[in-house]
Amino acid sequence: MSTVNTLRGPIDSTQIGTTLMHEHIMARNPELEQNIVHPEYDEAAIFARARKSLTSLHEDKGIDTFVDLTVLGLGRDIPTVQRLAEGVPLNIVVATGYYTAKDLPTYFHTHGPDGLVGKTLGGPDVLEMMFVEDITKGIPRTDGVKAGIIKIVTDEHGITPDLDRVYRAAARAQAETGVPISTHTNVHFANGRDQQKWFKANGVDLERTVIGHSGDSTDLDYLKELMDNGSFIGMDRFGMEFVLDDESRVDTLAKLLEQGYAEKITISHDAGFFSINTPPSWRAKYTPNWHHHRISDYVLPELRKRGVTEDQITQMMVVNPVQVLTGDAEATKAVAAKVLGP
């Protein structure tokens, strides 16, 4: 595949451009919000703020593509994102997958292949079917918007039985559709190792995986191990300084680039315009640098001060996203030749 699905349809590799590979527009909880009205969910204000920021990202900062990894479990609502994105000039890639650190809801148990309902219906696992149909047919209630990436999780509990099922659905969906897998990890538990071990044992091409939140770690040996094994790593939480300060994140990234790892790194923020879990007022007070402009305004200038070259930045932000999103080596080479030269 030399194209990637976006909110407005497929684009080819030459249109992907400078990319933020792990972001969010909104993280919500529809059931909770039906019963507990969140005082900061002002849709008109959120839409206005998001449109202004996304437009500025493209027009002022040169960002072409924004990958929104909000999936089920985080309140994915693509019809609302479609309305929000009207008139926004950058590409938005949306995701399929499931976000849970431990357990799946009861529905997936009763409708599993061996579940009370599922065993009477037959057919593939409902998770696998959902992932594949999101990619090939389109996400429900969207008039055919197709996912361009799969998002899955491992955290403190490791790969539980329910997560193993999510992983199997993701692996089968990737094998059938060719889209990449991007992950959530907790570096305190070195989840990237477990993820790679599972992927390798179950036939997932590590070259088509991004081990997310790797930038929370300053352990160079761990990060290089993940890349040496074949995966890309996501240095994707710039601005999330309640986890790790940005100076440490920049220093770690600069050291990896100095050691020749530019071809295996993507960078991003994991930020959003509204989250019911960490609402805007809390973010403004306690983590003011956690926003989608932080890389452009702070990280790139700091990297340049440390001797990082424009070619290395372009490799991470343009070439690597093409390789991750399309999996097309020839298309990636063509883009690299154009933006980096022979």
UniProtKB/TrEMBL annotation:
<comment type="similarity">
    <text>Belongs to the metallo-dependent hydrolases superfamily. Phosphotriesterase family.</text>
</comment>
<dbReference type="InterPro" id="IPR001559">
    <property type="entry name" value="Phosphotriesterase"/>
</dbReference>
<keyword id="KW-0378">Hydrolase</keyword>
<dbReference type="Pfam" id="PF02126">
    <property type="entry name" value="PTE"/>
</dbReference>
<keyword id="KW-0479">Metal-binding</keyword>
<feature type="modified residue" description="N6-carboxylysine">
    <location>
        <position position="151"/>
    </location>
</feature>
<dbReference type="InterPro" id="IPR017947">
    <property type="entry name" value="AryldialkylPase_Zn-BS"/>
</dbReference>
<protein>
    <submittedName>
        <fullName>Phosphotriesterase</fullName>
    </submittedName>
</protein>
<dbReference type="InterPro" id="IPR032466">
    <property type="entry name" value="Metal_Hydrolase"/>
</dbReference>
